[in-house]
Amino acid sequence: MSLLVSTSFSSARRALSAPTLAMLPRIADSLSFLYLENVRVVQDDTGVCAQVAKTDGSADRVYLPVASLACVLLGTGTSATNPAMATMARHGTTVVWTGSGAVRMYSASQPSELTTDWLERQARAWADDTARLAIAVRMYEMRFGAGVPEGITLQQLRGLEGQRMKLMYQMLADKHRIRGFKRNYNPENWDQQNPVNQALSAANTALYGVVHAAILALGCSPALGFVHSGKQHAFVYDIADLYKAKHTIPMAFSLNKSGNPDREARRNLREDFRLYRLMPAIIHDIQRLLAPELDETGEETQNPELVHLWDPDLGPVDAGINHALDPGW
Amino acid sequence: MSNMVVISTTAVPDHVRGAISRWLTEPAPGLYVGTVSAKVRDKLWEAVSASVGEGAAVCIHPAENEQRYVIKTAGERRRRVVDFDGLQLIEFRAENGNVPL
Q1: Is B13 a member of any domain?
Q2: Is A32 left (phi over 0), alpha (psi -120 to 50) or beta?
Q3: Any bridge partners for residue B71, and if so which?
Q4: Is the pLDDT of residue A298 over 50?
Q5: Which residues in chain B have their CB less than 8 angstroms from residue A36's CB?
Q6: Do A194 and A246 form a contact (C-beta atoms < 8 A)?
Q7: Interior CA angle at A135 toward A220 and A301, to 5°?
Q8: What is the count of residue pairs from A and B with beta carbons less than 8 Å apart?
Q9: Within a domain: residue B80?
Q10: What residues make up the domain containing B26?
């Protein structure tokens, strides 16, 4: 408020169109996700809105609070204009293009103004096999809440994980009296699938979107996974796996009699996100994974305008100045 | 526990405005704000929403959801609350001449 009072009208106007970092909610405080279908997302003179076309050629409009949204999932039948995408990028909103019901993730955008501190930590840990294995082990420990024997190999870990998941599916199927449940994911045959599978696929994609947004918000790479590898979203799958056993799988099973499983799954997931404050938990968990030694006093202040040059001996060196010693001309 | 509540009214009968002003303050025409208990707020909103006539009213108050508030409406206007998998956003309906602004 004082910001707007103390500045002139034109600079206040500029501040609103190009927000400063202080005006953007911290990713941990923002709304988790918004799924849109059959709309056109445009930037008009006041804001970003989703237009819902009507038969008579006119359109209803829904303005989107993009600055306070971590992630917008664009489903089937959607399109977005260039200015709308630019505005969302400026506000650090991750845009994920998904299939119908948010059950498939095609691609996601990355806001560019971010520190690379966490990306560098991730890349260092990923490139070193010992460090990478240690993080993979820590991920399994976080998932199952139990320590694993020292010196365990990844192969043994994978076996352990497979056993646990099988047991979990079996227990849940028994609990909900579902006979012969099989996890299957077949987008071509979507409507014929068991509601549990539909709910699970929808919930997982929404989870991927949120996790992806959290990863990008830290400036990490979604591609450098520790357990998964070889996919542009390997790290997204790694992190999302931490929450499936608690947030998506049991919930999906509870929807086995639902008439609209994917929609209900997303609704329940939002309740979950709210109740457990999952967004800040994801950020915190990624930081804890990549830098367990860091004091847990919270996020450090980020300055996206800072650009350094790298020096192996001196550490970060100021950029934007001429480093020539004595040009001699 | 008392919580803040905001009620906005458009073209409601005069007696409704007078009634609301006994609980809430009116910093701008038709806009009311105050701090009352959940019970009082619900009773007040029940009474207001039942007597908007040709007008419209909106009530916003804190809630334990992701947005931290809920929006309730009474009466027809171009703006309508739409639920997006648990997120309340506002749909601004295309002009068709029938619905007042």
Answers
A1: yes
A2: alpha
A3: B60
A4: no
A5: 84
A6: no
A7: 40
A8: 52
A9: no
A10: 2-75
Task: Provide the 8-state DSSP code for A244.
Answer: I
Say yes or no: ipTM exceeds 0.85.
no
DSSP string, A75-113: -TT-EE-HHHHHHHHHTT-EEEEE-GGG-SEEEE---S-
User: What total number of domains does chain B contain?
Assistant: 1
Q: Which of B84, B89, B94 sits opposite A58 (nearest CB)?
A: B94
The enclosing domain of B53 has a CATH number of 3.30.70.240
Asked if A136 reaches chain B (Cβ–Cβ under 8 Å), the answer is: no
Instruction: For residue A181, give the H/E element and its range.
Output: none
Cα A318 to Cα A315: distance, rounded to the nearest angstrom: 10
The type of residue at A90 is R
Q: Are A209 and A96 in contact (CB under 8 A)?
A: yes
Token representation of residue A164: 């646990």
* A161 φ, ψ (degrees, to nearest 5): -65, -45
B20 is a domain residue? yes
The phi and psi torsions of A168 (rounded to 5 degrees) equal: -65, -45
Architecture label for domain A2-291: Up-down Bundle (1.20)
C-beta atoms of B92 and A62 within 8 A: yes
The more confident residue out of A302 and A128 is A128
Residue burial A194-232, b: 16+ Cβ < 10 Å; e: rest: bbbbbbbbbbbbbbbbbbbbbbbbbbbbbbbbbbbeeee
For A122, the token pair is 């991730």
Whether pLDDT at A326 is above 80: no
Mean pLDDT value across residues A258-277: 82
The answer to whether position B9 is within a domain reads: yes
Sign of CA dihedral B52, B56, B62, B65: positive
Cβ proximity of B24 and B5 under 8 Å: yes
Strands (DSSP E) contained in chain A are 34-36, 40-43, 48-53, 59-63, 71-74, 79-80, 94-98, 105-108, 308-309, 317-318
Whether A271 has its CB under 8 Å from any CB of chain B: the answer is yes
Nearest-Cα distance to chain A for B90, in Å, is: 6
Asked whether the beta carbons of B57 and B8 are under 8 A apart, the reply is yes
Residue B76 has pLDDT above 90, yes or no: no
